[in-house]
Amino acid sequence: MTATTALPTEERVVRREALYFAVRNPKLVIGFSIVLVLALTGLFGPVILGVDAPNEYVAMPMLPPTSEYWFGTTTQGQDVFVQFVYGLRTTILAGAIGGGIAAVIAMVIGFVAGYRGGMVDEVLNMLTNIVLVIPTLAVLLIINAYLGIRSVGMQALLIGLTSWPWAARAIRAQTFSLRSRDFVDLARLSGVGTPRIIAREIAPNMSSYLFMTFILLFGSSVLIAASLDFIGLGPTEGVSLGLMLQNATQWSALQLGLWWWFVPPGAAITAVVGALYVANVGLDEVFNPKLRET
Amino acid sequence: MLKVENVTKVYKVGTFGGRTLTAVDAVSFEVRPGEVVSLIGESGSGKSTIGKMILGLIPMTGGTITVDGVPVKPGRDYYRSVQGVFQDPFSCYNPVFKADRVFQLIKDSYYPSVPGKEWTERVHSAIEDVRLNPREVLGKFPHQLSGGQLQRLLIARALLLDLKLLIADEITSMLDASTRIDVLNLLAELKGRGLSVLYVTHDLSLGHYLAERTVVLRSGAVVEMGLTHKVFDDPLHPYTRQLLSSVPRLHAPWEDAPPVETCLYHERGATGGLYEAEPGHFVACAKLDDC
Asked: Where is each ABC transporter domain found (chain B) (predicted)?
């Protein structure tokens, strides 16, 4: 029995430890369960429902929830439940793409600025600060006016391209403190190149941090997408939770007492973002032993 | 072997780098093959900076450093023959990985074609060379090992390469007394194999224990250098004298350090450089600034 045989088992022990605390953390379990249920609904719901066009007029207008139309119908007679399921898919997709793009940009800029320092850092930091102070809504208004945001993917891309700065700053600060550790010098003395040092030496030390950054960016992308949709800057095709809210407002659902039209999408947006933040607090406790409550 | 000539390091400090700070000021010395040279200086004297410049971890502002006539070129080839061991063994290991990953990095960079089994044997023999038991130290996380074990593993790591020069930067300052002497004896043994060692330290007695020659640094400049016994038995520079008198002794109570005298070599024309007091024993002007 040499070390080579002992290696994998012990690594597994450490991973198992993180998993042990993860499944016993109620915040994490509840938060992720809510997101997972909603994501699966959005993913498989349309397939199960077998409806191709969620904006089709299918029934009598303004029907309250019945066994046939679970969430009732709109002023035009569209099935709110079908719209909700499709909207969930769009909204979570916008969160995943927007959050993913923002996380990748934030990591690249944060790591390079923090590790390289000097002039590179000055330039990247300036870029970060410029994007940070640009009013996202105003920019998206202009882009919408000139180009028109036609698809969810385009909208998510624009959200991703504008929401990375705070995350880049945070990652840069963490990298700054890690790069002065001796193990980075030792890796250089082992002939390891800069990209590998960042990926293999620095990033693993902040993996929990990076994971949480993605979760927070995901949540904020969902919110930004919903607010853009609500003020009429959303995609002109398809349906999303934000667009449902916008339609409900435009057709005076609140005044007409059509609560089934705007409560489900509003509740779902709140649930997704709220659950992500709760899960984030739980993750913090899992990764940081000092915060564990037991 | 190692030649350091007129090496200078100037840092830009303050807003927009408006002011400068000279950390290392025209330092020259030499380490011959199979020789241990100790670089002694107090905190902030620039000794670690010199070590890092030799390793190519920070760029020089001026001067040249050559190893066997080849200038410092940070990269795979250079680090094959020049390696360093640092002060804090706990900071030298990536805390999220196993300690033996340092060996894997060496294999990935330098010996990718060596079969796994042969490599394991090499690692084992290097670990045994530093008087550790491979079974006890392999497959563990850094926090499961002691400072002495970690430090010796780093020396074993360096031994896996075709090493010619080792920069030992305060390698014993975080170790307890008995481990410290083990590591020092290990360095002495490496010297026997023909390895050159630059031993950077603030501890005079450790420098005296190991080194053939001693270089004394003060605020970035060499004040005295020569054979260790000459420097220690017959210190010429007032700073060296002060330094030697500040070592706590086992059987003597504290006494006042001798006052810093006036310029010793100014009148002999040694301003700005080093004066050769006797063959191989150099000393700087004591009051360089106002000479």
From this structure: 2-244
* Maximum Cα–Cα distance across chain B: 67
Q: Do A6 and B139 touch (CB under 8 A)?
A: yes
pTM of the model as a whole: 0.80
> Is A4 close to B94, i.e. CB distance below 8 A?
no
B241-250 tens-digit pLDDT: 888 877 777 7
Backbone angles phi and psi of B216, in degrees to 5 = -100, 125
Superfamily of domain B31-56+68-215: P-loop containing nucleotide triphosphate hydrolases (3.40.50.300)
Whether the Cβ atoms of residue B167 and residue B1 lie closer than 8 Å to each other = no
Looking at per-residue pLDDT, the higher value among B208 and A113 belongs to A113
Which value does ipTM take for this structure?
0.85
CB pair distance less than 8 Å for A3 and B57: no
User: For the segment A95-108, what is each residue's pLDDT rounded down to a tens digit?
Assistant: 999 999 999 999 99
> Does pLDDT of B261 surpass 60?
no
Of A186, A221, A100, nearest in space to B84 by CA: A186
- The CATH code belonging to domain A43-291 is 1.10.3720.10
Question: How far does CA A60 lie from the centroid of its chain?
Answer: 36
* Residues 51-70 in B contacting A (C-alpha not used; CB under 8 Å): 52, 55, 57
